[in-house]
Amino acid sequence: MTVANCVKHVSPNGSLPVVAKPAAPVPSAAPATSAVPLHRLHTVRCREGVTQRTVARRLHLAMAEIRHQERGTTDLLLSTLHKWREVLDVPLAELLQEPDDSLSIPIKERSRMVRAMKTAKSILEQARQKEVRRMAENLIEQLIEVMPELREIGAWHLVGQRRRADEFGRAAEQCISDDVFIDRGE
């Protein structure tokens, strides 16, 4: 232990100097790492055009520690993420890893099942061969076994084209009278 790393204190009676060890450094990351990405420090730093050296200087950390913290699988303390947020000048939410899309797994699975049912019912409606109709019926029965509420799902529409999410249908283009929105107290 070097003198520069030590803190000198005077004993309670004031006669002898006491040398104390420095306080343990505050950890910036939990020791465990995760297999799934937990944050986006590297991506955001590169996007913002800030170098690792700049981050190391501003956070008063060694380059090796910056590289370690930047690994997406490093489990960082919230206080460490706040320090990075200040250096990169971005909202904290940008540093956090978000799922690839905003739908939860059960919703995505239900959506896939609904699409499969719509496709199976469309095949059943359009099939002319007995074998194809029978396979479609079996598929529909199996889908209903897995998810009974699919019984009410209909086939894909055959007329017109499907709209994109940012397009409106014909109903949105028609004018609606203001009288529709007036409560007549009936």
Describe the model.
With 186 residues, the chain is mainly alpha-helical. Among the domains are: 29-95, lambda repressor-like DNA-binding domains (434 Repressor (Amino-terminal Domain)), CATH 1.10.260; 101-158, no CATH class. 44% of the residues lie in helices and 9% in strands. It has eight helices and four strands, in the order E-E-E-H-H-H-E-H-H-H-H-H. The chain has helices spanning 41-48, 52-59, 63-70, 78-88, 92-95, 105-126, 130-146, 170-173; strands at residues 7-10, 17-20, 29-33, 74-76. A two-stranded antiparallel ribbon has the order 1-2. The chain is elongated. It starts with 6 loop residues before the first strand and ends in a 13-residue tail after the last helix.
The portion of residues forming beta strands comes to 5-15%
Q: Quick one: CATH class of the domain at 29-95?
A: Mainly Alpha
Global shape: elongated
Sheet having the most strands: 2 strands, antiparallel
Strands, count: 4
**Roughly how many Å is the radius of gyration?**
31 Å
Distance between the termini: 88 Å
Report low-confidence residues grouped into runs of 5 or more.
1-26
Query: By CATH's scheme, which homologous superfamily of the domain at 29-95 applies?
Result: lambda repressor-like DNA-binding domains
Question: What is the chain-wise order of helices and strands?
Answer: EEEHHHEHHHHH
Report the helical percentage.
40-55%
CATH architecture annotation of the domain at 29-95:
Orthogonal Bundle
Number of helices: 8
Which structural class best describes the helix and strand composition? mainly alpha
CATH topology of the domain at 29-95: 434 Repressor (Amino-terminal Domain)
* Strand order in space, largest sheet: 1-2
Overall mean confidence score, pLDDT: 76
